[in-house]
Amino acid sequence: MDQRIDPRTGFCTENSTFYSKRKPISLPSNESLDVTTFISSQPHHGNVAFIDSASGRHLTYSQLWSAVDSVASSLSDMGIKKGQVILILSPNSIFFPIVCLSVMSLGAIITTTNPLNTTSEISKQIGDSKPVLAFTTRALLPKLEKSNLNIILIDGDEDSNLGKMMRKKPGERRMRERVNQDDTATLLYSSGTTGASKGVVSSHKNIIAMVQNISRRFSEPNQRFICTVPMFHIYGLAGFATGLLASGTTIIVLSKFEMDEMLSAIVKYRATHLPLVPPIMVGMVNNADRIKLHYDLGSLRAVFCSGAPLSREVIEGFLEKYPSLTILQGYGLTETAGAGSSTDSLEESRRYGTAGLLSPSTEAKIVDPETGMALSVNLPGELWLRGLTIMKGYFGNVEATATTLDSEGWLKTGDLCYIDDDGFIFVVDRLKELIKYKGYQVAPAELEALLLSHPEIADAAVIPFPDEEAGQVPMAYVVRKGGSSLAEAAVMDFVATQVAPFKRVRRVSFVTSIPKNPSGKILRKDLIKLAASKI
């Protein structure tokens, strides 16, 4: 490490930049390389790549790469060329990665959409990304009926369009266009938790760097991952449709999340790793006695949680119920191909509330939002990231790209963070979500963590509520635990005794659940809309 860089914090005083303490990643020297070829060329001893949890159908690695080659050949015969966009609208399945890998091997661009999206939301994305072809299931076909797109069905039976393509022998004289690492591989739409959804353009280089990041973290032999997180999301696409394949991992695919189905799959397939989002982790803590009575989770070695930093209460509560497991965490954005920071051991995760150390070959700045000045250790400001996984920009949106990516390649994350004395990142809140109370800034995440420590509160979210005198006041949406009759005044009193007066919760509304996106982030804009409708 450079002598000007503090080995403990990773901070360089000369340029006010934090450097990753992890071993750096080196990109392949061959510039003419697509991510599919990169993954398939990695040496590993894995046998089974994917197992369908419901049917037990599995794909070995040799079957996977044969299928990818056949589907890519079929797409090429259909006239699909480098640079064209292909849409996939599908729940998780063992066929989802085949489509993605086939498309990217041709230099074509994969764009994904949430099966829960409305027809109009999907139409809007189609209008923006302009795909030439769509892959979907029979059940989801009605959502594409008005799109006028050519459609390939990917249902699991052998008579489906995809089934026939997978059995086709690849053309021997097929001409492949040269794909470079800088070419676009994916066009994923950000969750839009703080504004309109935007198309994030990531290159083959971005995804290759992310694949290396993941395969290095999970490189032990005989790993079996449960996949419940959606493959259309960067969390699922980077991990389960690409990254883990480079280390020979077996991935057990559930088409959707259902707690008992997930637990049954762990038992049946002797899963070793379980990726979660915080709400599912909390559910496993609250239902631990029933779970341990009906399910033998002895094969599990680790849970990996992403979406929001875990509190002391959640970490220790989970370890008390499941003492043999290691908790790993991660922080990333669609704009960073899912990379950013991670905890790679239980010891690191026990630095409560942290998002971990910077990902390999990633640099960070903490920038004062008011002055634009780069800050030092333990001072909160906006987190800026730079590295191999940072997106090329927003699709067809020069203005949004210019406000998010600066000329030196720094991505402005919009997250208010600080980095501590040992180089660990702590996310304070989303900058755009800070509540402005009489000039004071109040972080919703701080109040939410406090509310979740209440013995009668199962879940909570805090939003800004308009107020003539104060500008905004903190309002809490609270989910009571079963059997609780907790009152509004009791919630406000609980917070008031533990925070400064300007941070006090001034309004409370009880709900049955908190709306969240697939990665577990609270959809505050939905709650703000709900609150506004009742004014």
TrEMBL record:
<dbReference type="Pfam" id="PF13193">
    <property type="entry name" value="AMP-binding_C"/>
</dbReference>
<feature type="domain" description="AMP-binding enzyme C-terminal">
    <location>
        <begin position="446"/>
        <end position="521"/>
    </location>
</feature>
<keyword id="KW-0547">Nucleotide-binding</keyword>
<keyword id="KW-0472">Membrane</keyword>
<dbReference type="InterPro" id="IPR042099">
    <property type="entry name" value="ANL_N_sf"/>
</dbReference>
<dbReference type="InterPro" id="IPR045851">
    <property type="entry name" value="AMP-bd_C_sf"/>
</dbReference>
<dbReference type="GO" id="GO:0005524">
    <property type="term" value="F:ATP binding"/>
</dbReference>
<protein>
    <submittedName>
        <fullName>AMP-binding enzyme, C-terminal domain</fullName>
    </submittedName>
</protein>
<feature type="transmembrane region" description="Helical">
    <location>
        <begin position="85"/>
        <end position="110"/>
    </location>
</feature>
<dbReference type="InterPro" id="IPR020845">
    <property type="entry name" value="AMP-binding_CS"/>
</dbReference>
<comment type="similarity">
    <text>Belongs to the ATP-dependent AMP-binding enzyme family.</text>
</comment>
<feature type="domain" description="AMP-dependent synthetase/ligase">
    <location>
        <begin position="44"/>
        <end position="395"/>
    </location>
</feature>
<dbReference type="GO" id="GO:0005777">
    <property type="term" value="C:peroxisome"/>
</dbReference>
<keyword id="KW-0067">ATP-binding</keyword>
<dbReference type="InterPro" id="IPR025110">
    <property type="entry name" value="AMP-bd_C"/>
</dbReference>
<feature type="transmembrane region" description="Helical">
    <location>
        <begin position="232"/>
        <end position="254"/>
    </location>
</feature>
<keyword id="KW-0436">Ligase</keyword>
<dbReference type="InterPro" id="IPR000873">
    <property type="entry name" value="AMP-dep_synth/lig_dom"/>
</dbReference>
<keyword id="KW-0812">Transmembrane</keyword>
<keyword id="KW-1133">Transmembrane helix</keyword>
<dbReference type="GO" id="GO:0016405">
    <property type="term" value="F:CoA-ligase activity"/>
</dbReference>
<dbReference type="Pfam" id="PF00501">
    <property type="entry name" value="AMP-binding"/>
</dbReference>
